[in-house]
Amino acid sequence: MGGTVSNGASFAAVIVAAGSGTRFGRSKHDLLLGGIPLWQRGIDVLSEAGIGEVVVVGDVPGGVPGGPRRRDSVLNGLEAFDVQPDWVLIHDAARPLVTAGLVRAIIDVSLGGGVDGVVPALAVSDTIKRVSSDGRIVATVDRDDLVAVQTPQAFRFETLITAHHTFPGAVATDDATLVELVGGRVVVVEGERTNMKITYQGDLALAGSILESRRR
């Protein structure tokens, strides 16, 4: 069973490392940061935060096969648990700089009661424009109530897996979208500016610089 916190609720995690890496130029499952695979960094941080069982989805040692969509890969991970935890954290391997402190903050809010999911997020600081297909700006979007979400995202296990099975055709770039569709209450906690996602080639070098600065 997943790691247990003070009130007896069990937590486990799924790390998604099965993406095709289209924008990066190749798959990212074997990328190294500071000599350590991105997915292994995810395991290490989750373990440091007290998560006892972690399933990795992707072409990695001991990994569960991925699916055609991210949401399919997540479902494969959810169904790989022999014993279902009370809560599950879904984390993208492509965010290797997440800290144990953020994971613990997410767990704390999850245990506060009255929520079905907890998502780290940052307020949008840039001006946001809506553009047409030909590149013309058509509107400036009010950013006051906009946030950019990160992972790991924590959910009640039963709520999340029910959402996956209830809306198999829904387009969902994160799991909070599915939980929202079944009426779940998802709240945000403050994310971390350094919890960046490795999306483009230059991102790996930037992550390396951040990692080096933490060692000084």
Task: Write structural notes for this entry.
This protein has 216 residues and is an alpha/beta fold. The protein has a single domain (3-121, 151-215), classed as Spore Coat Polysaccharide Biosynthesis Protein SpsA, Chain A (Alpha-Beta Complex), CATH 3.90.550. 29% of the residues lie in helices and 24% in strands. It is built from 6 helices and 12 strands. The protein has helices at residues 38-48, 70-78, 100-110, 157-166, 175-181, 201-215; strands spanning 3-4, 10-16, 32-33, 36-37, 54-57, 87-92, 117-123, 128-131, 137-141, 147-149, 153-156, 186-190. Strands 1, 2, 5, 6, 7, 10, 11 and 12 form an 8-stranded mixed β-sheet that branches. A two-stranded antiparallel sheet has the order 3-4. Helix 4 crosses helix 5 (175-181). The longest helix has 15 residues, at 201-215. It is globular and about 50 Å long. The termini are far apart. The model has no long low-confidence stretch (mean pLDDT 93).
